Amino acid sequence: QGKSLIFYDLVSNGFKIQAMARADKSQDADFSKIHEILHRGDIVGFSGSPGRTKMGELSLMIHTSTLLSPSLYVLPGMHYGVKDPNIRYRKRYLDLLMDKTVREKFAIRAKIINHVRTFLNNRDFVEVETPTLNLICGGASAKPFTTFHNQLSLDMFLRVAPELPLKMLIIGGFNRVYEIGKQFRNEGIDLTHNPEFTTCEFYMAYADYHDLMKITEEMLSSLVFNLFGSYKIKYH
């Protein structure tokens, strides 16, 4: 950039476009002053018209500029990004800003949950919510997180699995139920285990393991095709 020609990369909702500010085309009262206070990470408002640079890149030709909300800390350079895994996981917002592949994972996760929900709903399963706080720890062999209910003066547990309440609903007359929700297990942490995690459990009356194998295969294969347009994917 120069004193009279400045380029910006505008990023919003996962999309990026270049913006170009020229002193001779600017309608700002003080071109130098407004652009001197803009920094990487700021939230800005630009008005202008679309156009192309001499290199042919589609750009926003800026007429007016407004600083909407300044970034109090300068973001790391886009070339280097955030490499420290502790910073990445403790400051997810920074990781999302610096690495678009992380944002894509969030979007894929949302699509997965939506597909599973639609798949089961279309097969007459009823989505339910069962208690997260329980008086007993059941449904799986796992160490629970414990808490205390002040009003009732009771020791309680965060659930390790929703199995028992879901089976009670089957007994109560619901032939097909499922729940997508958080489980909590006070155990180890590694690449495939976390104390707080999301599961989908579904139960189906008058069915055996052959039926469950079939519906699980259909769910997973349709999920992969829905996400990638193919039944073959590259994993790691």
Kindly summarize this structure in a few lines.
The protein has helices at residues 31-36, 85-90, 92-98, 100-121, 163-171, 209-228, and strands at residues 5-12, 15-22, 43-52, 58-69, 126-127, 133-134, 146-149, 154-158, 176-184, 196-204. It is 30% helix and 29% strand.
Describe the structure.
Helix 4 (100-121) crosses helix 6. The protein is of the alpha+beta class and 236 residues long. The strands form three sheets. A four-stranded mixed β-sheet has the order 1-2-4-3, with no helix packed on it. A three-stranded mixed β-sheet has the order 5-9-10. Strands 6-8-7 form a three-stranded antiparallel β-sheet, with no helix packed on it. It has helices at residues 31-36, 85-90, 92-98, 100-121, 163-171, 209-228; strands at residues 5-12, 15-22, 43-52, 58-69, 126-127, 133-134, 146-149, 154-158, 176-184, 196-204. The protein folds into two domains: 5-69, Nucleic acid-binding proteins (OB fold (Dihydrolipoamide Acetyltransferase, E2P)), CATH 2.40.50; 99-228, BirA Bifunctional Protein, domain 2. The longest helix has 22 residues, at 100-121. The two termini are 40 Å apart.
Q: Give a short account of the largest sheet.
A: 4 strands, mixed
Number of domains: 2
How many DSSP-defined strands? 10
Report the radius of gyration as a whole number of Å.
Answer: 26 Å
Give the name of the CATH superfamily of the largest domain: Bira Bifunctional Protein, Domain 2
CATH class of the largest domain: Alpha Beta
Low-confidence stretches: none
Report strand order across the widest sheet.
Answer: 1-2-4-3
Number of DSSP helices?
6
Q: Based on CA inertia axes, which overall geometry fits?
A: elongated
Order of helices and strands: EEHEEHHHEEEEHEEH
CATH level-two architecture of the largest domain: 2-Layer Sandwich
